[in-house]
Specification:
Number of strands: 13
Distance between the termini: 39 Å
Structural class: alpha+beta
Number of domains: 3
Strand content: 5-15%
Strand order of the largest sheet: 2-1-3-4
Shape: globular
CATH topology of the largest domain: Glycosyltransferase
CATH architecture of the largest domain: Alpha/alpha barrel
Helix content: 40-55%
Number of helices: 25
Largest sheet: 4 strands, mixed
CATH class of the largest domain: Mainly Alpha
Radius of gyration: 25 Å
């Protein structure tokens, strides 16, 4: 996300409603943490021991959260965390903690909420200062080095001058972030669910971009969970305006800069509203969800070209993201081995002239728009500009010959790109691999390609043989054992994927594991106050929530409830069915005003009430 400007720290604090051990990250199994191992900052991992140290030394905690594929995280490391003066000041006056957000979802979500409430927006790198008691005091995203160093000195001076005041301010802010206990909800009615769907569609169309599709006036994220729910709403009640918006969005995402037409797969988001300029990281969770979305849209709208996009995405996942261990890696970095953002995907004119002969160059320039002065410092980004037929007509070429030359040219460019190197986050995350398993099973069913079934088998085996020990699901495993605690997200997404596989293969044994995961997740992450992402955050926590909203990832509470509902129907488990109904009916006040944010919950209610 774009950095948010830092206003006066003093104003923020007033308006709130509410022994050095050395850098220990060098040998971390997390690529993101390991890349900070040579920083002069004495980074430490998040732990109970470091919180105890902060209390003992009465120092503020500086918690910096990011992830391997994040562009601005790399920038701030290069500019700030490797600055000797900044490092000396942090090491002397603060306890600095570096967190991989993909390994500590609950802490990240809690601090994201704090920064959003106090700043109006949040993103990564996420930088938050906490009191020794573990209460957030002030937070921000990216800052230039000079402003960050100034903030450090101002904050330290104020902390030494009035520590008790700032402890009280932070404690009040933490108390204000706590939720409230759930109140009993009336039984669900069809008429209520229909109203929620109407609100969802109305809000989506109001928020949607009529010109380019998608949501947002600056950046554009492919909000796959929301689009999935809108697709389901259209199936329940066809609406011409909704269909037009959905197909516009799907077309623009597939043909614009969000998608890599050379190697396959989607980037995480674009920095412009027209889907032209991507941030170049590729995430497993995004590609898995978009593959499923395009498969469903292909069926619903009878669009074979959408199925082709899904196939291309699944092929990319199998070819590029499948690890030798059997699971799929988390992401590819936005920057190449030389530190250039997008450098892996961009082509300068000299390279294009060297790789292609003249007829191929003319064809590729027409189809992919790679001509003239490059829009990026490192060259052109391939982007579909016209069809084979249009390009052939413009060049007075036979269409079949154009298709053949395009295939040959694409293969040449791929050979050239394989000479480059792109940093990879090799973590194999349970939840994200669960989403990938769902995608491969959907591909095997709909496209009939045995490769997708074989790939799904590998993911299934990795989940059950490496990330599940018979008692507990691990979020990831490294050479040194556990890499992050499994969360509601992991249990929900992995259970959904395994149930999809069990239904494809009619495996009773795998359905029994799904039942175990659903029961364990409900016991660990749900109680009378609602859902929690984790049962071990190390921070003061409040009540749970009735439902989690959707983001670029689907709501984990919705995914778990849907999986439990499917399981209850197959096993005729009346107790499980009642458990889902009770949890799904809890406190729907948010749906009256913010149905779009909870699109998955609306879709779930429509499934279980109709």
């Amino acid at each position: 996300m774009h950095p948010h400007p830092l206003s006066s720290i003093f104003l923020l604090l007033v308006l709130l409603p509410l022994a050095v051990t050395g850098n220990t990250l060098r040998d971390s199994d997390s690529p993101y943490l390991a890349m900070h191992g040579d920083d002069p900052v004495d980074w430490q991992p998040w732990s109970a021991e470091v919180l105890a140290q902060a209390k003992r030394e009465n120092k503020l905690l500086f918690v910096s959260i990011g992830y391997f594929a994040c562009h601005w995280c790399h920038v701030m490391q290069r500019e700030t965390y490797r600055d000797e003066a900044v490092a000396r000041y942090l090491n002397e006056h603060f306890i600095s903690i570096k967190v991989d957000r993909e390994l500590n979802l609950a802490l990240d979500a809690y601090l994201i909420e704090f920064v959003t409430r106090t700043r109006g927006s949040a993103g990564w790198p996420l930088n938050v200062f906490l009191t020794p008691d573990g209460h957030p005091l002030v937070g921000m995203t990216y800052l230039p080095t000079a402003r960050f160093e100034s903030l450090l000195r101002e904050l330290q001076d104020q902390w030494l001058e009035a520590p008790d005041y700032f402890r009280q301010v932070a404690a009040k802010a933490a108390e204000a972030m706590k939720g409230t206990p759930l109140t009993p909800a009336p039984a669900l009615k069809v008429v209520d669910v229909q109203r929620y769907e109407e609100i969802l569609v109305s809000q989506a169309l109001a928020l949607g971009d009529d010109m380019s599709g998608g949501f947002g006036e600056q950046t554009k994220f492919p909000l796959a969970p929301h689009l999935r729910s809108l697709l389901a709403a259209w199936q329940h009640r066809p609406d011409a305006a909704l269909k037009e918006f959905l197909t516009l969005t799907l077309d623009r995402m597939a043909l614009g800069g969000l998608r890599d037409p050379l190697g396959g797969g989607f980037f995480r988001y674009t920095v412009d509203p027209g889907w032209y300029t991507p941030h170049f990281e590729k995430m497993l969770y995004g590609n898995a969800q978009l593959a499923v979305l395009y498969l469903r849209a292909a069926q619903v709208f009878d669009r074979p070209d959408y199925a082709a996009v899904a196939r291309d995405t699944l092929d990319f996942m199998l070819r590029e993201m499948m690890a030798p261990a059997g699971g799929m890696v988390a992401s590819f970095s936005a920057v190449d081995e030389a530190g250039a953002e997008g450098g892996y995907y961009l082509w300068d004119n000299e390279t294009l002239q060297r790789v292609f002969d003249k007829p191929q160059l003319a064809l590729m320039q027409k189809i992919w728009g790679m001509q003239g002065v490059p829009p990026y410092d490192d060259g052109h980004l391939p982007m579909m500009q016209m069809s084979f037929a249009e390009a052939a007509k413009a060049l007075d070429m036979d269409v079949r010959m154009a298709e053949k030359q395009f295939q040959l040219a694409t293969e040449r460019l791929l050979v050239e790109r394989r000479k480059r190197q792109l940093p990879v986050d090799h973590k194999i995350l349970a939840g994200w691999n669960g989403l990938a398993l769902t995608a491969l099973v959907a591909g095997a069913r709909q496209l009939g390609d045995v490769r997708y079934r074989q790939g799904a088998q590998k993911l299934r085996d990795h989940l059950l043989e490496t990330l599940w020990d018979g008692q507990r699901l691990w979020r990831a495993r490294g050479k040194r054992g556990e890499l992050g605690q499994a969360t509601l997200e992991d249990y929900a997404f992995a259970a959904q994927g395994l149930l999809d596989w069990a239904e494809l293969t009619d495996s009773k044994a795998d359905r029994q594991v799904v039942q175990r995961w659903v029961d364990d997740a409900w016991r660990r992450f749900h109680d009378g106050s609602g859902w929690r992402l984790s049962d071990q955050t190390l921070l003061p926590s409040g009540y749970g929530v009735a439902m989690f909203s959707d983001s670029p990832l689907p709501s984990p509470s919705v995914v778990l409830m849907r999986t439990a509902w499917r399981l209850a129907g197959r096993e005729d488990d009346k107790a499980l069915r009642e458990r889902v109904l009770k949890a799904a009916a809890s406190d729907h006040t948010e749906l009256e005003t913010a149905a779009f944010e909870y699109a998955g919950q609306v879709e779930l209610l429509a499934e279980i009430v109709r």
